[in-house]
Design goal:
Blueprint (H helix, E strand, L loop, with lengths): L8 H18 L4 H8 L3 H8 L6 H11 L5 H4 L7 H7 L4
């Protein structure tokens, strides 16, 4: 499924969980192996793959093991803020 951005959070989490599961299986890593390599409890791996809510640091650990953590650069690119940009967003009292 392609994520377009208008889906609700539950749908997106389920899709991310499925992608994590598919990638893990393609890499021939068991859930227990993923838990051991990532330092994340196996119960959390199961929840993540079901699309349930998990801590962000757990997700990052799993993405690191899967070798896709650097893809986050595609989601949110680093922004260079000019000095005047910061001043415009700063509220003075």
């Amino acid at each position: 499924m392609t994520i377009y951005g208008n889906e609700n959070n539950e749908t997106i989490m389920m899709e991310l969980g499925q992608r994590i599961r598919d990638t893990r299986i393609r890499m021939q890593i068991t859930q227990a192996g993923m838990a051991e390599q990532s330092g994340v409890a196996i119960r959390t791996i199961v929840r993540m793959e079901k699309g349930e809510s998990v801590y962000l640091d757990s997700m990052l650990n799993v993405l690191r093991v899967l070798g896709v953590l650097e893809n986050l650069n595609l989601l949110l690119q680093e922004q260079e803020l000019a000095p005047h940009s910061f001043a415009a967003t700063y509220v003075r009292f």
